[in-house]
């Protein structure tokens, strides 16, 4: 997030992002109005453009804040904290906890859909690049850590494993966003084991125990 935003006091940040979430929830990305956000938050247009480049930057920053809040609630995923024994189980545990959070706040699913809608926009999609860059850096660290622990394969190029993991993450994200409302409770309960199982089959050394 922008370093400038750190200079905005916590209460004004809360009002701004509450107004931003309300506006995007009610009107979607294309229909959202910066003028309505300004009215709801009490922020001036000059102040908004001091902290953000445009609507896409504001929206992407809101996504970043939502992800940070989610990670604080479900627990971190620091590569250095993983061991060979906990590597795959940790990802499944965090996924399961994330589903519980989303069950309480379905807006997070809607937010994901709006994010990928923005991601696909030729004009405004570039604002999401910083999130994907951060995600890629994290995946690179996870793959390296897994290789050091002997739970991630070494027979394929490191960059290929990272690219394939990023593609699988994005595919699963989009699928969950598109199908969330139609999934039964039992199907949601099976998602962590099923989806982490896909990563394990992709990344685990050949012949490793499932």
Characterize the structure shown.
By secondary structure, this protein is an all-alpha fold. Helices cover 71% and strands 0% of the residues. It has 9 helices and no strands. Helix 6 packs across helix 8. The chain is elongated and about 60 Å long. The termini are far apart. The mean pLDDT is 91.
Features:
single chain; 210 residues; mainly alpha; 9 helices; 0% strand
Please outline what is shown here.
The chain is mainly alpha-helical. Helix content is 71%, strand content 0%. α1 packs antiparallel against α2 (34-41) and α1 (10-31) crosses α6.
Structural topology:
Blueprint: H1 10-31, H2 34-41, H3 45-51, H4 55-74, H5 87-104, H6 107-119, H7 129-149, H8 158-179, H9 185-203
Helix pairs in contact: 1-2, 1-6, 4-5, 4-6, 5-9, 6-8, 7-8, 8-9
The outline comes out as elongated
Give the tally of β-strands.
0
Q: How much strand? A: under 5%
Structural class: mainly alpha
Number of helices: 9
Task: Work out the radius of gyration.
Answer: 19 Å
Segments where pLDDT lies below 50 for 5+ residues?
none
Helix content: over 70%
């Amino acid at each position: 997030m922008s370093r400038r935003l750190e200079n905005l006091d916590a209460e004004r940040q809360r009002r701004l992002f509450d107004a931003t979430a309300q506006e995007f929830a009610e009107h979607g990305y294309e229909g959202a109005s910066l003028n309505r956000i300004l009215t709801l938050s009490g922020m001036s247009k000059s102040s908004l453009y001091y902290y953000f480049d445009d609507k896409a930057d504001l929206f992407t920053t809101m996504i970043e804040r939502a992800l940070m809040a989610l990670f604080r609630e479900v627990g971190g995923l620091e590569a250095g904290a993983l061991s060979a024994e906990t590597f795959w189980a940790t990802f499944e545990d965090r996924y399961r906890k994330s589903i519980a959070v989303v069950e309480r706040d379905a807006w997070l699913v809607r937010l994901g859909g709006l994010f990928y809608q923005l991601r696909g926009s030729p004009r405004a999609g570039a604002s999401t690049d910083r999130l994907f860059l951060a995600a890629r850096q994290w995946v690179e660290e996870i793959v390296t850590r897994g290789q050091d622990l002997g739970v991630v394969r070494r027979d394929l190029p490191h960059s290929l494993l990272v690219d394939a993991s990023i593609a699988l993450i994005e595919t699963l994200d989009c699928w969950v966003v598109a199908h969330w409302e139609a999934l039964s409770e039992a199907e949601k309960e099976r998602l962590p084991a099923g989806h982490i199982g896909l990563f394990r089959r992709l990344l685990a050394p050949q012949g490793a125990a499932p």
